[in-house]
């Protein structure tokens, strides 16, 4: 179990939202061997059909019907089987590059490095920057602003989320040996030295981007750098001892949710406007929905979590209680935000947010609540897009409110 996991959470908010997912299927398997074996079976089946099928004259003599075109049907089945296998291979290659479970094995060190950063988990952070820019009320489509936004997204996604995912896999290498032994680190596909180099390159690169943004925006106080240092520290204590927040249920899941919702929002708003206390409080509360999303990703890791002593909510409360805590935190948070938007006069945006909440509740009852272990991916793929667009709706509402009051 890990944050993306958020390839779970993020695998999660992200891929799910825009691909999705999401995304977390079966463990990787040696494709060439499987394809070869299937081809052999297909060919041998075709041969036996042609050679062993009774002659039509004999069948008629016995008063039996003749099975027409047996060999042709076998050939058609063989072609379809090999075509399906080719599709599986292509899908496994994409999953490998995105850092999704079920990806194929590779010896290409740069593909492995990319896999460790889990690109599918970058999307929520990039989306969060967009929400913050919208909430500032001052974003305009100028070349300079586009450049600032792109740099902030690169910092939040590939660099700092990549750092978070890589250090999480590094600290999770023992539990991955149980849950996902084919992942790059426990399988030995990448050396320990290479992993540590990647961690520091991504971390220092993120800090350098933050400092550049503060200078570019002429901040008196380096707010983006401060947020980056704080977020990096949260990422570390989430995955690494002695605190290792992921072992502590509520605290760990909330830290994860806040990192994916509040922090990128704050960074985007700080780049294009003023980061005020009221919007910080609102996004911290909105992060309770992120807590629920993080819980979704814990159900499939129950066995490994028990063995490693990780007190995830499904382990601590059981599947039945944990699934209701999960959906309750997601729904109650968004409903509360919709209510708050009404109190500040943003009724239209409040109605839009409500319209995005109700489909999530529908999919919770259709997929997640009946079987959260089996249907977690289906639920996330169906419901998460509505949640992330709800975030953007909230950001637009806040930006409209800022402009309305002349702040």
* Major sheet summary line: none
Shape: globular
Q: What structural category arises from helix and sheet content? A: mainly alpha
Count of helical segments?
Answer: 18
Stretches with pLDDT under 50, minimum 5 residues: 9-54, 58-64
First-to-last CA distance: 43 Å
If you compute it from the alpha carbons, what radius of gyration comes out, rounded to the nearest whole angstrom? 25 Å
Portion of residues within helices: over 70%
Structure in words:
By secondary structure, the chain is mainly α. Helices cover about 75% and strands about 0% of the residues. It contains 18 helices and no strands. Helix 1 crosses helix 18 and helix 7 packs antiparallel against helix 10. The longest helix has 30 residues, at about 375-405. The radius of gyration is 25 Å and the shape is globular. The two termini are about 45 Å apart.
């Amino acid at each position: 179990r890990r944050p993306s996991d958020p390839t779970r959470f993020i695998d999660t908010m992200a891929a799910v939202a825009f691909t999705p997912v999401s995304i977390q299927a079966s463990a990787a398997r040696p494709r060439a061997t499987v394809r070869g074996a299937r081809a052999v079976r297909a060919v041998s089946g075709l041969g036996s059909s042609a050679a062993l099928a009774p002659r039509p004259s004999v069948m008629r003599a016995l008063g039996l019907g003749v099975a027409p075109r047996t060999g042709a049907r076998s050939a058609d089945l063989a072609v379809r089987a090999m075509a399906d296998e080719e599709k599986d291979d292509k899908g496994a290659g994409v999953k490998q590059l995105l850092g999704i479970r079920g990806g194929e094995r590779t010896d290409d060190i740069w593909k492995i490095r990319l896999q460790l950063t889990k690109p599918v988990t970058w999307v929520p952070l990039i989306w969060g920057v967009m929400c913050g820019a919208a909430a500032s009320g001052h974003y305009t489509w100028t070349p300079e602003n586009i450049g600032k936004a792109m740099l902030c997204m690169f910092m939040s996604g590939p660099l700092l989320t990549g750092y978070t995912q890589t250090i999480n896999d590094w600290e999770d290498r023992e539990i991955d040996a149980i849950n996902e032994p084919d992942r790059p680190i426990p399988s030995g596909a990448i050396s320990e030295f290479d992993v540590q180099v990647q961690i520091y390159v991504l971390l220092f690169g993120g800090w350098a981007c933050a400092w550049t943004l503060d200078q570019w925006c002429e901040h008196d106080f380096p707010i983006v750098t401060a947020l980056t240092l704080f977020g990096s520290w949260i990422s570390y204590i989430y995955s690494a001892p002695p605190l290792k927040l992921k072992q502590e249920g509520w605290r760990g899941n909330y830290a994860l949710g806040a990192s994916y919702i509040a922090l990128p929002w704050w960074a985007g708003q700080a780049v294009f406007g003023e980061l005020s206390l009221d919007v910080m409080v609102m996004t911290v509360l909105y992060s309770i929905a992120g807590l629920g999303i993080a819980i979704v990703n814990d159900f499939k890791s129950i066995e490994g979590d028990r063995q490693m002593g990780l007190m995830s909510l499904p382990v601590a409360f059981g599947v039945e209680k944990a699934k209701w805590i999960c959906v309750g935190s997601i729904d109650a948070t968004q409903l509360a935000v919709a209510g708050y938007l009404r109190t500040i006069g943003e009724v239209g945006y409040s109605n839009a947010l409500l319209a995005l909440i109700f489909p999530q509740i529908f999919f919770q009852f259709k997929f997640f609540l009946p079987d959260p272990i089996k249907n977690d991916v289906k639920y996330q793929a169906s419901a998460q897009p509505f949640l992330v667009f709800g975030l953007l709706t909230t950001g637009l509402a806040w930006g409209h409110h800022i402009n309305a009051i002349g702040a």
